Amino acid sequence: MTHKNRLATTLAALLATGVAVANGHGFDESDRGRPGYRPSAASIQLGPRPFYLVEGMEESRLKDRLMGCGQGPFSRSDFSIGHRGAAMMFPEHSDLAYMAGARMGAGIVECDVTFTADGELVCRHSECDLATTTNIVATELNAKCSLPWTPPAEGGKASPVCCASDLTLDEFKTLEAKMDASDPTARTAEGFLGGTADWRTDLYTGRAHVVTFRESIAINQANGVKHTPELKGATHQDRVDDIFGGQEAYAQRFIDELETAGVSPRDAWVQSFNKEDVLYWIAQDPKFGRQAVYLDSIDPTASPPIQRLSLDALKELRGRGIRIFAPPMWALLSVTDAGEVVPSDYARDIKRAGLDIITWTFERADLRKGASQAGWYYLFDPEGKAIRTDSDMYKALDVLARQVKILGIFSDWPATVTYYANCMGL
Q: Over 50: is that where the pLDDT of 17 sits?
């Protein structure tokens, strides 16, 4: 089956499933596949997790407010952004992950965009992540990897490097998506494909397909969901130059794909960590550039550390036409000595510079033992003074929404954010 036929089959199955749900709430069969088709509020399926988290909160006004919303109804919200789809439990950037994110009420779903050897745009978090996000090392295509998997020496670790740009589109489309994980000590290729964290799951692998950028747009359109594609930086910039003719041509091809698919600029928030990409879109494609998102690379754990931007630098961004800035969530928050979550000085400076804020990423850490052991996404609370359990994540979200006044937040499990957004009328 060609990748085009596979797309048609996948979309037909997804639409059939979506309509079956919607029909139980009054949709007509003629709605199937119609441009702008959007399931009713009653068809949004949050599942038990938001309720579990809310019920586990300590007594507070916030808990009372959230508990009072348990009967719904719940509807789609642009405040809730599906990060790589619904990557906490579904293989990221797969058809299943995108469908799950839409079902959980994400109003916007993300495709990270990279490229194949024949210049096709595909959804992967990075150009060279296939070894841990697909089954490639257990297939004949392992031989085409920049650094193929081979059994590690006794006591050693394997570090294969498999890039989308190592493959043609037809080769890429033969891969199956899996949870982003590996066991580098494994002595077999099948064993290397393991290693999924115990707070995630492999229950939904086996039927998850990798997708092209074009296919991700079609899935979003079928679900009535908006788009926030990110143009990923290349691992091999020379391949960008050879295939597209340079970074600007690559950035333009990215916009061309949206325009060809008939995406309204109002329904797309194009993103990049590369400021020059964002400035190019503002100058050359102002309809899409108006909502372009400049992602913040701040990282105190990097070597050398990447520091926050100064107020003057933030004002300069705004002066050059950038309207939306996107730091990680921890950079926007702080914790007082009394254990209260509050906006950070950085958040205040970003707003003072006149920039709107989108942030990332909710539900991308194991919070069962609190922020002190949750890692990078909870650097704002290294001692776990405020975020002591997984339920306390709603404290952070409440400050981001009501005090920092973010436009939206990426989540690996959009249902938790959709619940909050509906409860708070966002």
A: no
